[in-house]
Structures are given as C-alpha cells and as structure tokens.
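#structure-requests
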Amino acid sequence: MKKEPFVTLEQLKEIEKTYPTPYHLYDEKGIRENARRVKEAFSWNKGFREYFAVKATPNPFLIDILREYGCGCDCSSMTELMLADAIGCSGEEIMFSSNATPAEEYQFARKLNATINLDDFTHIEFLEKCAGIPETISCRYNPGGVFKMSNGIMDNPGDAKYGFTHEQIIEGFRILKEKGVKTFGLHAFLASNTVTNEYYPMLAKVLFELAVELKEKTGVSVKFINLSGGVGIPYRPEQEGNDILAIGAGVRRVYEEVLTPAGMDDVAIYTEMGRFMMGPYGCLVTKAVHQKHIYKEYIGCDACAANLMRPAVYGAYHHITVMGKENDACDHKYDVTGSLCENSDKFAIDRMLPKVDVGDFLVIHDTGAHGYSMGYNYNGKLRSAELLLKEDGSVQMIRRAETAHDYFVTFDFCDVLKDIKWQD
C-alpha cells in the first residue's frame, strides 16, 4: 500500500532551484481543509475552540492560518507564550498547560491573561504566591489506573506525571472557589495518538460526569471542558484515519446524555490537537546521497534524525515515497539512514522500496507535527528550512535553515571562537 504525497516530483525539482534539501514542506490547502472540518465537527457547541498545540509545530506562519478558523494557542513554556503573544494572541485565545512550572512562566501567563490550566494540587498555593489567583482557571484531571477502549488498553494514566487525583480535584475546586475563582474549567489527556473515533467521546464522558459531580459536591458549575489532544493520524498506509465529524457527533451524544440533563448545556468544549491539525500536512523532503552495500543495503540521505527524530527515539513508522517511482515495484529492501554518528539514525529499517538511486528525492510523510519541532543539534547538525506549499502552487519560506553562525552564537559572550570562518 502507498500514501500519496501532496507534492509532485516536478514541483520538488522547481523548489530545488531555490531551496536545497533537506527541508520540511507543509501543505496550505490540506491544513485549511482540515481546520474547516474540525470547526464543522464541533459547530453544535456554541463555545467551541481548538487550541492548537504549539509544541507540535511552533511556526507562526502556520499558526496564523489556523487562527483564521478561530483556533487559539495551547502553550506549555515561556517561549511558546512569547510566540503566541508575538502573533497577537492574548486572553482567552491562549491556554497555558504546563507542568513543574517556573514562577516566571506563571507570571508571564498572568500578564497575557492566558487561561492557566493547573497541573497539580500544590500549584494552587504556588500560583497564588508568585502570580496571584485569576478569576478564570482550569485544572488538569488524572483518573489513575489504565484507560481502556473496545480495542484494549490505550494508555496508563496512573503512570503519568500529569494532573490532579480525583480527591485532589474536588478539594482543589473548593479551595479555588474560596480564593475568588469565578470561571472553572476541566482538562484531561489520557491517551496519545489514538486512531479510533471512540477516544474523544469516552474521554468526554469521564470529564462530563466529573463536572456533574463537582457541581454537586462543590457548587461549582464548570464553564468549559478541554478534551486536550490525543486524536491521532494514520502513519501507516493500511490504517484508517479518524473521522473528525463522527468524533464531534460522538462527543455531542455524550454531552446530551450527561450534561444536558444536569442543566449544564452551556459548557464550552475545547480541544488541543496538534498532530491531527498539522501532522499529515507536512513532509520531510530529502535526497539519497549515498548507497552502502555491506551486510545490509543502505540508502544514506542528506536528512538525519536531527530533522526527524521520531523513528530513532520511538521506532516510529513514517511512510517513504521515492518520487518518480511511485508505481514501481517495491522489490528492494533498505535501511534508510542519516549521517549522525548514531546507529539509531534510521528513518526506516528493512523497508521495501523501489530501487533507489543516488539523487532520488525521498518524501518522508506525516512530519507536520512533532517533526521539525523535535529537532536538535547533536553532531553539530543544523536544522533545516521550513517551506509552505501555498494553495496557488507557489512556495514560501516560513523558516530559514540554520547556519553555522546560529550554532556558535551562544558563544558570543567570549573570544574563544572569534577567529572562526563562518561558512554561511
């Protein structure tokens, strides 16, 4: 089975005239179509908002596209808050979900009037001392145990470092109410990269029932419920992707079963999807620069794990298309590698592909989320450019490639490298 790239070989050859490989390329048309579907899926809920998980793809050009469809920013660090602020987000457009949070980050979040999503019971006192308790606040819930669906165990919240326990969240709401909080929200993230339409409705049921319990036990009426992320994408071509319209309808059914009878039909639904919003609409474009014939057959690329670390770290599958050979038989077995001094620097192991020749373009699919953003500089590798394939077929650079000057700039306080000859 195969995946269809959103870019053609002819387009890649034209791009190469200006931008050398490797680079991350994003599909504006796909991003916009998907954002419209998400908005439609939850249009039944008057207060719905998608808070794009900035950590997934922290590029202001891409986030600005999503903002045209009403999306806000889900931030988890100082620099992500700074990025959101720089592109004009403020107040309820920003959800700040962090953990082990430094005081200065809470202070900056309060300055932006972002909605703070507290990760821990002890953070109530910490936030009050360092930045004050706001009138609107959210709390992250961790029910413990394992999270199961019809196809088995999806994840193990009991081993996760995030969130309040059941007892803590009830006591936390009581304390926050006494401290003057007027608008409350709930948040939970119980499984990652689920490829099933069941996940959001099942998570929603957990949080909706908790909201009803909190109203009964604390008198607090929850005003928004954040289903966070966890809606995944089909990395493998044989997988069937999520149907966001069916997911939205499933959440609506649970809403009407649990919240509406409790007189809570004014609760806004929030989401914080990163992978689903951007993942399929990005790819890593690289070229085969070497072949190696030893105990196995290797294809060496000009990209490496510094550009996409998921396969090296998680053993994650990313589909690879050899451009121009899409219809050729996949009758050659390769390890597709980068040039890091690490044996884990492999995009694919024992992958059946058409015969790959030096100079072939390889498109590594589904890198639009947790691709560039997880890059690093090990081995002195420099991160690539990010490009946007626009709806009209033109290409826009939305982040330049790193240079040697960028790599050494943190030594600008001293003279150790003053005589280095930059190759920029």
